[in-house]
Structure formats: C-alpha cells, structure tokens
Amino acid sequence: MHAFFQIAAYVIIAYMLFSSLSYLLLFLLAFRKVKREDKLDRRESTEDFLGNQNTYPVSILVPAYNEEVGVVSTVRSLLALEYPEKEVIVIDDGSKDQTSERMIEAFNMKQIPFAVRTHIETAEITAIYQSTVFPYIRLIKKANGGKADALNAGVNLSSYPYFCAIDGDSILENDGLLKTMKPIIESDGQIIVTGGSVRIANGSTISRSKVEIIDLPKNPVVLMQIVEYFRAFLIGRLALSHLNILLIVSGAFGVFNKERVIQAGGYNKNTVGEDMELVVRLHRLLREEKSKQRIEYIPDPVCWTEAPESLEVLRSQRIRWQRGLFETLWSHKKMMLNPKYGAIGLVSMPYFLFVELLGAVFEFTGYFIIFGGFFFSLVDPNTAGVLFLVTIFYGSLISALAVLLEELTLHKYPKASHLARLYFWALTEAFWYRPLMVLWRVQGIFAAFQKKAHWGDMKRKGISS
Amino acid sequence: MTIYSFWLLNVFLFLSQLVLLLMLALRKHRLSEKERTINEQYEDLTESFSSYMMDPADDRFLQEIRSTPHQTVVLQRLLNGYVSVAKGSTTSPLVAQLSEDFLTERYAKQLTRRNWAIRMNTLYFIEDFHMQSLAPMLKEKLRKTTLLDQETQQLLRTLASLNEPETLSVLAQYPDAPVRLYLDIFKRLEEHTRSQELSAALRNETNNKTLKHAAISYIGMAGLIAFLPRIESEMQNKDSEMRIQALKAIFHLQFITDPSLLLPFFQSLSWQERMFASRIAGRLQLSRFKETLSELLGDSVWWVRYSAAEALVQFADGDILIAHLAATHPDRFARDMASQWKSSLLGSEN
C-alpha cells in the first residue's frame, strides 16, 4: 500500500512540475511578443485599411439557438462595426423561442426565396429573410442541427471570401473586425484563421450595443472566470500562436478563410467542440499539403460575452468543453506524436492531451492521494500542508502573470483596485474553484462516451441594456 | 530537499506576486495620472488650437503650447485629431509647419529607438503630418534595410506619402513584394508623380509583372480614365493574369471605346474572363450581348452563371428577361440562378 502511494505521489508530483513549468514557459513566450507591441498605436496601424478597396469583404455569421434576448443587440453592434464591406447572416437553428421573430421585427425583414450554393450538406433550410432597411442583413431559418450545422448553413449562404463566426450573445468592439482582418490582409492571405480575445462582460455597463464602462462583477464565480480567461487567452493562446501550433480559436469570435474551411469539409456536426475540431482539421490540411499558411491569435480585438453566473450552468459549460476537447483529440489521434505533423503533432497535441485534458485526472488523483494519505497516516500533515501552499501560490503567481500581460496589452480595467480584487480571488482559487473545475472536467471526459450533441443550455439575461 | 526549502519557496512565490501587484498598481496609478494631465492640457488647448488652424494670425496657441509640459504628446494628439477629421488636411501647410517646428527633433530620436512599437508609431505620424524634413533620414534608413518586414513596409508607405517615387524601385528589389504594397505606394504619391510612375509601370521596361499588375489594378480602382487606351491594349496581352486585371479595370472604369473588344472573352477558356466580360456587359448595359449573357447563364461555373444573371437584371427590361429565363432556359442550373435573381429583385423592391 505504502509503495503504491509513493509511486502514485511521485507521478503526480512529476506531472505537476511538468505542467507548471510548461505554463511558465508559455508565459515567457507570450511576454516577449506582448512587450514588442506594448506601445503600438493601434488606431494608427489600422486606419489605413478603412478606406481601402483592397480590404477583403467579410461575411459575419451569427448562429443562434434560443437567443431572443441578445440576438438583436448583437446584430446592432455588428452594424456599427467599422469595416468597408460586410454582410451579416443570422442562422436561427430551429429555436423554440422568438429568435427569428425578434430579428424580422427589428430589421423589417422580408422572406426571399434564395438559391443557396450548397458547399456543405446541412439540415433543411426552411426560409431565408432579408432586411429591407439594411439589405446586407439576412436571416436563415433552418431545422435544428446543432451549432456546427448552423455555421455550415451560414458558410453556404455567405458571399464573401472570409467569414467571421460570432456567438449570438456577444458584443464585438467597433474596430474588432478590422483588427482581426489586419493580419490576414497584411500576410496577403497567408494567415487563414485569426482569433481575437474573448472577455467577460458581466459587471460592465453595455448600452446601445457598446461597452461603455468596464467594471468587475461582484459574483466570485464570474470573477474567477475572468482570471481564467486571462490565463487562457493571454498566456496560452498567445504563446501557442507564436509557435504556429495554436489549436483553439474561440467559437465566440474568429475569422476564417472560407475556401479553406470548405476544403476541410466545414464544421463537424458530431462534436460539441466544433470550433477546436475545425482548427485542428485545418492544421492537419496545412501540414499534409506542406503549406506555409498560418493560424493566428491576436490579443487586441476584443469580443465581450456573457459568462455563466451560476455553478450549475458553468458546470454544464465545462463538461461540454472538456467533452469537445476529448472528441477532437480522439478523432485526430493519428496526429498525436506523429512527426509528419511537425510541432502540432509533437508539441501541441501532447500538450492538450496531458495538460488540458488529462490534467484534471492527474489533479483528481492528487486530491485522492492526499485524502487517502491522511486516512492511512501515510502522509505527514505538515509536508502535505506546505506542498499544498506551494501549489496555491504557484497557481496564483501564474494568474498574477496573466494579469500583468493584460496590463501590458489592453489594460481595459481602469482602476488599481480592480487589479487587487483579481489578485485576491486568484489566491482563493485552489480552495473552491479549482477542485470544482477538476471534478467537472473529469465528468466531461466521461460525458464524451455518452454521445449526444446539443447546444449549451445557458440562461441568458442579455448583456446589453 | 527539506521542508524548509519548500517554506522558502512559498515565501518567495508569495512575495514575488505581492511585489508584482504593487508594481502594477503603482504603474496603473502613474499612467492614469499622466493620462489625466495630458487630457487636461489637451482640453485646455483645443480652443486656441482650433482658432489657430482657422486663422494663423491668432497665435495664442503657439505661446500656450510652448509652455505646456507634455508639449509633444499633446500637440501630436491635437494634430492627429485634426488630420483625421478636417477635409484636405493631409496637405495642410499649418500641420506640416507645426509638426516640423515641435516634433522633428523628437521623431528623429524616436526613429533610432530600440523599441519597435515606438519606431512604428513615429512612422505613422510622420506620414499623417507630412513631415518632409525627415525624408532624408527615412531614405537612409530604407537603404540599410534588407528585409521586407512590417517596419520596412510602413517605411515605404511613409516615404511614398512624402512623394518619393524611388520607393517603387526599392520595393521592386524584393521579388516577393505583394501587389498590395505597390498599390499603397501609388495611392500615396502626388498626382503628377503618380501618373508618370503608372505610365512607366505599364511600359514595364523592368519586366516587373507585379508592378504592372498593381498599376492596372490601381487605374481601375482610382477611375483614371485617361489611361483607358493603355488598359484596352492590355486586354490583348498574352498573359491571362494581365488580361483579367485589364477586364477588372474596365469594369471599374465603366467605359470601353469599342464593346466588340469583349467578344473573345465570352468564349474564353478561363472562367474568370467569362465572368468579368459578363459583369462588364451588365454594368455598361451593352444590350447587344443579351443573347450571349442568356447563354452564359447556363455556364458550367457557378460564378459565371451568377454574374451573367446579375448582368441581365441590370438592363431596363431585366426583370422580364430574368423571369422569362427562369421559366424557359433549357439548363436547370440556369433556371435556378435566374429564379434566385428574380426573387432578390422582389426583395429589393419591397
């Protein structure tokens, strides 16, 4: 028994060391990039594209399922986007609420029989509407087929070479699209996907589809998610994108080269993590073609979204994410540790497998060992206590470094007290938030075995007033 | 490792984030203080700045800006606001004068800074304010570069905005230089210089395909009708890419001296040529091609069918034509496309 505990404990400690160091390494990579662009005048660097006829036109796809509360304000915020040529396509994926009715009413839409060019097979399309006020707003009503299917229908109807996928209850900042397209334009199409940052809007004041005052929410569940998003976006994605091995572009906000997506077969309907799965498939396509094209994350353009406030909704979200991650890694297992896929196969896939997916299992076992150890008096409480403190402080240091990156890149939060609050909550993470996440992520792995695709059933309050 | 070393590690981890927090809080405080004073000074000077820009005889502004602590930042902001709002301000002698007087020295220093972002910002502002006096320094900088990175690209754009045509020959040294950059340069050159450079590019004595491509493309986008005969002669170029660019330019110029020049393109093997020929026929309302367009409605390529239908609906009797074709065209895809356009017409009338 003793020996078993010893071995298990060593494995866990080795794992913890490995994952902690990997995060520190990613931070250093991200820091280098951030430092370089820290003082750049963003407005100056994009204003040239505004009046430029060479700026590629973009179709904005808004998949919506039961989004009657937020869909109209999302579309309004999209109308205000500074971009020379765009169209907005809302896809109502068989909503049971008034999503379509709200759209038809708000934008004075009329039904048009429109022949859709079917690049990708989708569930049946029942009607297509066009706004009589803004002809470039269209609405597709279709039978329910899941988010991936809705996006595919949008891709079919879109008329421009690039499309931007954005969630039904998100607000994009005015210059967001321009900033996201900038790398694509400047690389002359060598960058085929760009993803921006997703920020949590809870707590901030949003009116007339614009973020007016940025503030922190009171709810600790949301505060913790803010810290978590900082870590994921500013450390994880920035560093991985720097190495061109980024596997996730958030489903909430990303721009894609349509031709490439169609070539890859569109979004996969059989996974709940369709955003990640598509990016992995695109990477696979690029590597198999030995193409030099890239997939990039840019921290600056920001999309504001509503985060779950209750633990119950958060739980179902996390289980879904974890399940999506599992399904993606499983369906592309051929790439794992396969030198043919370069750094994606050798670094990125194993990173996502061991740190992002199985990390939860290792941590869960860690908790189990600690409790078991106490129970059988195999662990000295003092040693365990000190080690526990190390993990707490280390974890919060990484969060603190993420806050540092946010301060260097966007510094959206105006007051010093905001920083102090984020710091404080980061310190409490190990006591309540982390164990919950670990538990749900383990559940998510199990959920992957019971397949049934569905939309997240989040209760929206609407973020705009 | 003893337990004490872990305690030590804990203390270190805790202290390091405490220090980090204090540093960040201090930085935040300092920056917002600075931002506040700059904003105050900006507000204070706005009025005298506006009246100076309208009537330079009212020189209160000059005295005030001289005694402002954050002189360069505030002036930079005022000028930047002015050039982005006021019409024709890009060539305003007052903007050039003010920036030359107060910003030259600072910008010259900034151009040699190690920080990449500061150098980039400086290049953007030199372009916005048309600071001619810095041109020699920029040219020197360009001579020393060997890589077409983001900074060099901006350097080229800034120099082009100062009307330096040799930017084109420098760019031509990079075989991978994209059309986009040539276009950026053409756009910034002054009219006379630009015309000369466009003519030279069309003659293509240096055998630079990308440059010629960019020139044709620019002529179309900018609607430079004076170049029409040259563009029309490019329609007979042996290179298909050039022919397509010429067709695109004709489409934008919305003019063609002899419509029969289009004839061969409707039968071309390249679908892009068939597509552009159709689009031109529609935009220029060349009714003699109605028959041809109806045939192209049954083309094997979706884009050609789409453009043929789009062209047909632009004729005065387009709605009747398209309704007729939707019902009677022998090709099923053609009928589909025609009905799609028929219904989109309904949508726009409502």
UniProtKB/TrEMBL annotation, chain A:
Stated family: Belongs to the glycosyltransferase 2 family.
The keyword Nucleotide-binding belongs to this UniProt entry's keyword annotation: no
The lineage's top-level taxon is Bacteria
Where does the sequence pass through the membrane? 6-31, 234-256, 351-379, 386-405
MF-aspect GO terms? glycosyltransferase activity
User: Matching Pfam families, A to Z?
Assistant: Glyco_tranf_2_3 (PF13641)
Keywords linked to the UniProt accession: Glycosyltransferase, Membrane, Transferase, Transmembrane, Transmembrane helix
Coiled-coil positions: none
Name this protein carries in UniProt? Cellulose synthase/poly-beta-1,6-N-acetylglucosamine synthase-like glycosyltransferase
Automatic annotation (TrEMBL), chain B:
Q: Which InterPro entries match?
A: ARM-like (IPR011989), ARM-type_fold (IPR016024), HEAT (IPR000357)
Top-rank lineage group of the source organism: Bacteria
The yes or no answer to whether the keyword 4Fe-4S is present is no
Query: Any keyword Zinc?
Result: no
Q: Which UniProt keywords apply?
A: Membrane, Repeat, Transmembrane, Transmembrane helix
Q: Which residues cross the membrane?
A: 6-26
Signal peptide from the UniProt entry:
none
Q: Name one Pfam family in it.
A: HEAT
Q: What is this protein called?
A: HEAT repeat domain-containing protein
Q: From which lineage does this chain's organism come?
A: Bacteria, Bacillati, Bacillota, Bacilli, Bacillales
